[in-house]
Design a protein that fits this description.
Length: 508
């Protein structure tokens, strides 16, 4: 999709369809045709959130989209409303959709809304058709495809515009729209990775993909190490998970070093460490999972996908903050050489781990990856992982679980989450939880027999591998797929990409 911006009268756009947001009590924007006024006065068009009405005027289709009350208007609501308008636009066989940006001073920041319009539209336009035969139809599993069998499946172009009377700077609007399109494309790329099956996206394939991303970005480097590299680095926890599979594991280390300096005289931002779990298929190992819905465990690499795409987006945006990203990619399979319940392994920081359950493998992969990020100089760390089913029971698909050893860092990550709509809920860490992960025969155990506070216990385990570095653990098991949002209803969501980019941007 070609995404652009314009400061021009709404009626001058070349788009075949124009979307206009209705904010309660504000009326229509300057230049809207009489036919739109008639829809509004008749009650067919309403400012109620997500309501839709269509008319034809001036040789165009006009979609009136309800945005609700100005006091409740937010970027996230605009993303959802944009997704609703996108669906209607495709039903109308739209090629180019133009959004008229709400600009009332009573509403939210219009530039933030512009970015949200882009994100909601581009994310809603996503389809995963990689394995569909030509002409097979459907939507590749990320939506139900209803009403689209004979119509277009994608928009050709999106224009986000505002009238000259808005007072919005043309360059500022262009910058926001361009950046939002870039980040939304990164989210969709992460969704592609997530949706690929385990026989296609092996750990090596994921590593090769990361290397390819850095090929045209001078400020981004990628290093990949396989099984021998894990052993050489004494990453016994990561290697133990990988030993049951014939596929080579991959330790993927990405390093973005910006060329642009920060603001003169300002304190330089910390080195940002991003760590992602990328178990490309998780059977549970010897502690085999139930067969029902095991296919979903291709999504167990979602944290790694988000880290790879966020790091690349940060580099492409040229944000002035150094990033060290570490992704641990492996399969977790049973075999004659697989790690067994009761085995004791040693992580790279010297901690010994009793493997009480081989299905608690993600924390073992992350243990060595977190320690590696610390050793490389990360000064603030966020890890993302589909770590526990318990977080789904606790928070559903609305919030990701957030746990941290540092209040200030947790607040900064939480603020980025609110800004992007990838919201989190902080769960406590307490010394009593540390007692639950103490081992009987080793330092730690990866799966306490008492099934208490499962999500928190996972974080308590990981806290042993970050030292004193401020760290946030995001458990995204409930938000990584089937998010249920208008712009990501089913299949992979790409959750975390926008959050991490916004976190990096918060230092700019």
């Amino acid at each position: 999709m070609l995404v652009s911006s314009a400061i021009a009268p709404i009626q001058s756009t070349d788009a075949d369809t124009v979307a206009v947001g209705l904010i309660d009590g504000m009326g229509l924007p300057v230049g809207a045709p009489q036919e739109c006024e008639e829809l509004l006065s008749s009650g067919e068009a309403k400012p109620a959130f997500k309501s839709l009405a269509v008319t034809h005027a001036q040789g165009k289709r006009w979609i009136l989209v309800g945005l609700g009350a100005p006091s409740e208007l937010s970027a996230e609501k605009v993303r959802v409303a944009a997704a609703a308008a996108h669906g209607r636009a495709l039903e109308l066989s739209t090629a180019t959709l133009a959004w008229q940006l709400p600009t009332s001073s009573e509403a939210a920041d219009p530039l933030a809304l512009a970015g949200a319009l882009v994100e909601g539209t581009v994310l809603a336009d996503y389809r995963f058709d990689r394995f569909k035969s030509a002409g097979a139809g459907g939507d590749g599993g990320d939506g139900d495809g209803a009403g689209q069998a004979e119509g277009p499946r994608h928009l050709e172009a999106l224009v986000v515009g505002a009238g000259p009377e808005s007072g919005i700077d043309e360059g500022a609007l262009a910058d926001v729209v361009s950046a939002a399109a870039l980040v939304a494309a990164a989210v969709n790329a992460a969704r592609d990775l997530q949706n690929r099956p385990g026989n296609d996206l092996t750990p090596t394939a994921l590593a090769d993909y990361a290397v390819s991303l850095a090929a045209d970005i001078d400020t981004l480097t990628v290093e990949v190490e396989a099984r021998a590299g894990l052993i050489a680095r004494s990453m016994g926890a990561f290697a133990a998970v990988a030993q049951g599979s014939e596929q080579e594991p991959a330790l993927i280390t990405m390093h973005y070093k910006p060329t642009a300096a920060g603001t003169a005289g300002a304190t330089p931002p910390p080195v940002l460490g991003l760590v992602g779990k990328a178990v490309t298929f998780d059977s549970g190992g010897i502690s085999l999972k139930p067969g029902a819905k095991m296919w979903e465990m291709k999504f167990d690499m979602s944290g790694g996908a988000a880290v790879i795409e966020a790091t690349t987006a940060i580099a492409r945006l040229g944000l002035p903050i150094e990033v060290i990203a570490v992704v641990g990619a492996t399969e977790n399979l049973p075999s004659g050489r697989a790690v067994k319940p009761g085995d004791i392994v040693t992580a790279s920081n010297g901690k010994t781990i009793e493997v009480n359950n081989t299905d608690a493998e993600g924390r073992m992969v992350l243990a060595d990856c977190l320690a590696h990020a610390v050793s490389l100089g990360a000064q603030r760390i966020v890890d993302l992982a589909t770590l526990t089913g318990a977080v789904i029971i606790a928070l559903g698909s609305t919030h990701a679980g957030l746990m941290s050893n540092d209040d200030e860092w947790a607040a900064r990550v939480g603020a980025a989450a609110e800004q992007t709509g990838e919201i989190t809920w902080r769960l406590p860490l307490h010394s009593e939880y540390d007692d639950l992960v103490k081992g009987t025969f080793g330092d730690l155990n990866n799966a306490p027999e008492d099934r208490k506070a499962g999500t928190i216990v996972g974080a308590a385990f990981l806290s042993n591998f970050v030292g004193d570095v401020p760290w946030v653990h995001l458990d995204i098991a409930g938000t990584a797929w089937d998010l249920g949002r208008g712009y990501a209803p089913k299949g992979a969501s790409g959750f975390g990409v926008r959050l991490l980019v916004e976190l990096a941007r918060s230092y700019c």
